[in-house]
Amino acid sequence: MTAEIVTAQPYQASLEKEARMRDGNMQAEKKSAIVVGAGVVGVAAAIWLQRRGLDVLLIDREGPGAGASFGNAGLLASSAVVPVTEPGLPLKMPGMILSPDEPVFLRWPHLPKAMPFFLHTLRMCTRQKTEEIAAALAGIISDSLEQHQALAEGTGAESFVVPCEYLYAYKNRRDFEASSFGFGLRRKHGFTWRELNDAELHRLEAMLAADMTFGVTFPDHGYIRDPGRYVEVLAAHFTASGGRIVTAEVTDIVRENGRVTGVRAGGETLACDACVLAAGIWSGPLAKSLGMRVPMESERGYHIEIEAPEETLKGPVMIAAGQFVATPMTGRIRLAGVVEFGGLEAPPDEKIFDFIRRVGKAALPHLPWRESGQWMGHRPAPADSIPLIGEFPAARGVYAAFGHHHLGLTGSAKTGRLVADLIAGHTPNIDLTPYRPDRT
């Protein structure tokens, strides 16, 4: 059964009923939607809903562009279809967690609480499952540059979206060949790359360390030169176009006879015809109240920002040895990445910032090290690495748009467009079955 039948048709009937002409002015009655979460996914959904002719309210407890939407690497990683659940992960995971040179960290007091999530994740680590997950990710992220260009068009945020090549830098060719499974998945989904020898690599990116002797560059990628400001400018366009933003914490989704009628926030109930749940990791409790227990953990991410020298990076670079991305941004270079499992309450771990400093200085020795900021935030990680997109079975009119792991920025524009299409009664051009909130 396709997602179009499951999610779009019931709402299509409602749209047709309400799209009648009235008052002699031939004006169609406007439907209303509330988007919970003003990160990049929520703001994208709000703009696309507005473009579909709905009256839209955006609610967030902090305001637009906070959290992971502020602190991400800024990369539109179209080719990042390889999930963390590669077949070799179960054997590699203990060493990754225990090694001081690997970008994976665990707070041991959090392990008992996270163990069900880890066990669920490990069940995904087969070749067949990994290929299925890669196909699902490709459906959401493979055209991310074009999707963000379409989202930003006419909003004043166009200049934040920068087309580029995406460079992977390796110590040697052997390290690249060790990733052959992942590159095979990329090739399967249509991605191409150009291999660079030592001289070609340093001619392309002179700031890299001399001991990096092999590179791979992907065409047709992009990055956002200031993710936080990008979301703020998009949100400003949303309000200038008639949208409303409320700063409050959403405590409940109100339903009658199984259909959404409103959202409880700030001590009052706000009415709506449809609701989008796009609150990242904080979507979990609200999803649970709607009958869905989502196996999801915070994939805590970190970044350090360095004041940019006059000669900065030409584009984003994945430093394969440390699994972090160095991205040129307005007036600075952001070094972002790392995975930490430690829950929502623990403060940032200073040793992880030290790790980024150590691998960053080793990879970019010519970079003047004048830090201008650091950040830690929570990325919503489902156990199977696939975002949740679609209508909740037990709550008609409520749509999931969360769970993008470390690909929230990359997949945000398309996710927002898809849920807006569902709510407006348009049939999406991809099969949404893999993203169903009720998948097992």
From TrEMBL:
GO molecular function: oxidoreductase activity
Domain spans labelled FAD dependent oxidoreductase: 33-422
A matching Pfam family: DAO
Keywords from the UniProt entry: Membrane, Oxidoreductase, Transmembrane, Transmembrane helix
UniProt KW Transmembrane helix keyword: yes
Keyword Zinc found: no
InterPro entries in the cross-refs: FAD-dep_OxRdtase, FAD/NAD-bd_sf
Annotated TM spans: 32-49
GO CC annotation: cytoplasm
Record-given protein name: D-amino-acid dehydrogenase
